[in-house]
Structures are given as structure tokens and as C-alpha cells.
Amino acid sequence: MRVVITGGAGFIGSHLASACLEKGMEVSIIDNLSTGSMDNIRYLQNDPRLQKRLSVTIDTILNPLTMAELIGSADMVFHLAAAVGVRYILENPLESIKTNIQGTEMVLNLCSRFNKKVLIASSSEVYGKHLHAPLVETDNIIYGPSTKSRWSYAASKLMDEFTALAYHSTKGLQVVITRLFNTVGPRQTGAYGMVIPRFVEQALKDLPVTVYGDGTQTRTFTFVDDVVRALIELMKHEKAVGEIFNVGGTKEISIQDLACKIIEKTNSKSAIEKIPYEKAFKKDFEDMQRRVPSVDKLKSFIGFEPKTDLEIILSEIIDNMKACLLT
Ligand SMILES: NC(=O)c1ccc[n+]([C@@H]2O[C@H](COP(=O)([O-])OP(=O)(O)OC[C@H]3O[C@@H](n4cnc5c(N)ncnc54)[C@H](O)[C@@H]3O)[C@@H](O)[C@H]2O)c1
Asked: Does the beta carbon of 101 lie inside 6 Å of ligand 1?
């Protein structure tokens, strides 16, 4: 079995590559290293057990020739490459839209042409500004205006879902859509706006832990190994084709409480500093107050339960970040 992982040098992609290799699959990664890094996959390339079954192409998913060659010779595709992270999207709005819309259309078109099954990594962001919980896959969607470019990520991921479903219904493409909620774990970088790695790095350096807004906004966090397990299981499940699944944890925590927990677990001298959204991002920035998934559908298809508790997740991330800061 040969799988293509777009965005395989990224955070989730590198963990997925590792899991697929451990299962005996051949893995082809394509990544342009915009937010990913060779450091994320170096240990796989250096492992004598795994390296023979791993190939890495540094290129953009927008290159049709490279993509045709990779997808044509694969059995299935995990499409994870995307412009990701609130800060990255705000700073690179046009490139982000091109990658997320044209890039995904390219992947879907080639998977359709070569008749390959594909998983699309969508996002909880597609739900927009809901306050209720839990969010169910069939919920309506509420966005802010197009003048607020933060919604372009949500809208682009939603367009990916529409396109994937259209390829499924009109061309019979085997596609599985996953809406990932905040996924966390070792190797995730805080550089593009991801909250846990940012807080952990600040706390380990005894710098102010910067909470955007008033800190009452809540999130759930899922360990990357749990997410990867769900993605692989969904691709094995015949009835998952043409379906959309929330993939995430269900324990809600406020960002203020998360900051306190991280300061405590790192024995940090850091204080919490609240930064208004308009200072942290652009004027008129809008955040989502709450984002909690219903995972009933996922549970009913593959028996998914997130196994890893937030305490353990944080310990793993703190240990990993300590090791990185020492090297
Ligand atoms: N981490 C999360 O909490 C989360 C939540 C919701 C959805 N997702 C989705 O999961 C996927 C993986 O996210 P991640 O957290 O690992 O982020 P990441 O930034 O680590 O991974 C994305 C990868 O895609 C690559 N990439 C970007 N543009 C590319 C292009 N044009 N060509 C080739 N490669 C390109 C990047 O270099 C990076 O390695 C993304 O599709 C993201 O939207 C992630």
C-alpha cells in the first residue's frame, strides 16, 4: 500500500507519515516547507527500518506534473497541505486562498482521474461563529463579512468540502472529509498562532504568557496520535466515503485556565498578560468564543474515543519543547 501525504512535513502530516510507515505502508510526502520543516521528518529519514519506504518531494501541491506523478503511483491520498494558522492566514491572505482552494481542487481532480481514494483535512473553523455546543456535522454555518480576512480560511475549507462532495456525487470519487478540531502534540510550532506551543514556550522562558482577548473563550484539545488513528481508521471504513466527520476532543477549557495550567506545570515565573485582539491581530479581528465537537458520528463509525488526557498532552509537549530549547 502506497499513500501520498500532502503537507507531510507539517505537524499532523509528520505524525501520520510515522504511523503509516509503522504499519508497513510506503509513504510519499509532498511539502513546500512553508509552515512545515524537514526537522519534523528527519527522524523517519534516518531510521533504517523506515527510510526505504519513505520518499520526500519538496514542491508545491499547485505543480500539476509533480502531483500527477505522485498520485498516479499511489493507492490513496491524505490531503493535509494547507495554509494554516490564524496569524499565517492574516499575513498571507492571497497565497492562503490559492493553496487551500486551487491546491485542493488539483488534488481532487487528480484523485478522480486516477481513481484514488482521498481524505480531506477540513477544519472546525468551517462552523464559524457558533456559541452552542456541541457542534454537529449538519449544523448551519455563520461567518463574518468578507472584509474580515480571518474568515477566508473557514470559507476556503468549506469550499474544499463542497468541491470534494461534488466530485463524489458527480464523478464517484471516494472521498472522506474530516473536520479537525484543535490538534496538539510534540513538534507543533507556535509561530503561526497555535496557542499551546506558544504558551509553553513563553512559560519555559519565564516570559509573559500572552492571552488574546479576555481569556474566557474556550477550546478542546486532542492529541495528535488520537487524530492520526482516527484518520487511518476512517480511510479503511467503506461507509465513511462521501461523509463528513468531526475529529476532536470534548473536554472544554478556557484559554485563561489553559494559561494557568501551563504556568503551573512548567513551574514558571511567568505572569499572564492579556492582549486585546486588535493589538494581537488586525483591527476588527473576530475570534470564536467556543468550539466543542460532537464526536457521536465518529464514534458510531469507528468507535473513536480520544485516549489522551490534557494533563498528559501538556506533559508531552512541555518535555518536547524543553528538549528543543536545549538543542
Ligand atoms: N492542527 C490543527 O489543530 C488543525 C485543526 C484543523 C484543521 N487542520 C488541518 O490539518 C492539516 C495539517 O495541519 P497542521 O496543523 O499539521 O499544520 P502544518 O502547517 O504543520 O501543516 C501543513 C503543511 O502543509 C504544507 N504546505 C502548505 N502549503 C503547501 C503547498 N502549496 N504545497 C505543499 N505543501 C504545502 C506546509 O509546509 C506544512 O508542512 C491542514 O490542512 C489544516 O488545515 C489542523
From this structure: no
pLDDT tens-digit series, residues 296-326: 999 999 999 888 999 999 999 999 899 888 7
Give the distance (Å) from ligand 1 centre to CA of residue 146.
23
Residue identifier of the C-alpha nearest atom 44 of ligand 1: 180
Q: Say if 24 falls within a structural domain.
A: yes
Q: Hey, which bits of the chain come out as E strands?
A: 2-6, 26-31, 54-58, 76-79, 117-123, 175-180, 183-184, 209-212, 218-219, 222-223, 244-247, 253-254, 272-275
Compute, in angstroms, the gap from residue 177 CA to the centroid of ligand 1: 15
The reply to whether 153 belongs to the active site is: yes
Residue nearest to atom 23 of ligand 1 (CA): 7
Give, using CA atoms, the residue closest to atom 7 of ligand 1.
123
Strand duo 183-184 + 222-223: pairing: parallel
Residue 216 CB neighbour total at 10 angstroms: 12
Task: Find the CATH number of the domain harbouring 50.
Answer: 3.40.50.720
Q: What pLDDT sits at residue 287?
A: 77
Give the E-state strand segments of 86-213 in sequence order: 117-123, 175-180, 183-184, 209-212
Domains in the chain, number: 1
Q: Looking at residues 96-113, what average pLDDT do you find?
A: 97
Residue pLDDT, tens place only, 92-104: 889 999 999 999 9
Question: Domain range spanning residue 300?
Answer: 2-184+221-248+290-307
User: Does the residue 321 lie in any domain?
Assistant: no
Angstrom CA distances, 19 to 47, 230, 252, 259, stand at 14, 11, 27, 30
For residue 316, being part of any structural domain is answered with: no
Does the pTM exceed 0.90?
yes
User: Which pLDDT does position 192 carry in this prediction?
Assistant: 64
Please work out whether the CB of residue 99 comes within 6 Å of at least one atom of ligand 1.
Answer: yes
Q: Alpha-carbon dihedral of residues 132, 133, 134, 138, nearest 10 degrees? A: 0
Say how many Å lie between the CA of residue 267 and the centre of ligand 1. 31
Tell me, what's the pLDDT at 229?
97
* Residue 94 falls inside a structural domain: yes
